[in-house]
Design a protein that fits this description.
- By secondary structure, the chain is mostly helical.
- It has 2 domains: 68 residues, Fe,Mn superoxide dismutase (SOD) domain (Helix Hairpins, Orthogonal Bundle); 101 residues, Iron/manganese superoxide dismutase, C-terminal domain (minor pseudopilin epsh fold), CATH 3.55.40.20.
- 48% of the residues lie in helices and 10% in strands.
- The protein has 8 helices and 3 strands, in the order αααααβββααα.
- Strands 2-1-3 form a 3-stranded antiparallel sheet.
- A hairpin with a 5-residue loop joins strand 1 and strand 2.
- The longest helix has 23 residues.
- The two termini are 27 Å apart.
Length: 201
């Protein structure tokens, strides 16, 4: 069966005023849907690949037929990243991290504030389009990385705990060229419960 669009876990306006409803609607119903459509089109004729999860495809891109590898990397990355990004945010989110994750953040970065500063700097420095992520590796270590376009951390062995989309379509209607304001606003909707759940796996 072809991949499907996961249901948005809240209404378009649920993250106001930090993420505006119009941007959320366009982002979900046009951009996310677009990545999904291109992914399904790329896999047409390779129906056996639909039996794999999107994570499995992205973790082992080299095993895919060469003629569709780039399309799966780009469209599949966009589909996967948005699918998890909606979960990384929630209404009335934000605040300080909780649970086991905050202990690891303090251990690795010194404090949440220092982690946030490093994350903001990385997200603000992405040239063009891409993402910035708080990830854990296979040993459970944390780091902050940025990826270009829709390149996925899981293709390099990292598990995303938290991320921010800094493609202009994610923020331009509300923030125009003020990317730093968008990045700062993101911390008001962070879903630490999700980050903790993924960290504990």
């Amino acid at each position: 069966m072809a991949y499907t669009l996961p249901e948005l876990p809240y209404s378009y306006d649920a993250l106001e005023p930090h993420m505006d409803a119009r941007t959320m609607e366009i982002h979900y119903s046009k951009h996310h849907q677009g990545y999904l459509d291109k992914l399904n089109a790329a896999l047409a004729g390779y129906e056996e690949l639909f039996d794999k999860s999107i994570e499995e495809l992205l973790k082992d891109l080299s095993s895919l037929p060469e003629q569709i590898r780039g399309k799966v990397k780009n469209a599949g990355g966009g589909y996967y990243h948005h699918s998890i990004w909606w979960q990384m945010m929630k209404p009335n989110g934000g605040g300080d991290p909780t649970g086991d994750l905050v202990e690891k953040i303090n251990e690795v970065f010194g404090s949440f504030e220092k982690m946030k500063e490093e994350f903001n700097a990385a997200a603000g420095s992405v040239f063009g389009s891409g993402w910035t992520w708080l990830v854990k590796d296979k040993e459970g270590n944390l780091s902050i990385i940025s990826t270009a376009n829709q390149d996925s951390p899981i293709s390099d062995g990292y598990m995303p705990l938290l991320g921010i989309d800094v493609w202009e379509h994610a923020y331009y209607l509300k923030y125009q060229n003020r990317r730093p304001e968008f990045i700062e606003a993101f911390w008001n909707v962070v879903n630490w419960d999700y980050a903790n759940e993924i960290y504990s796996k």
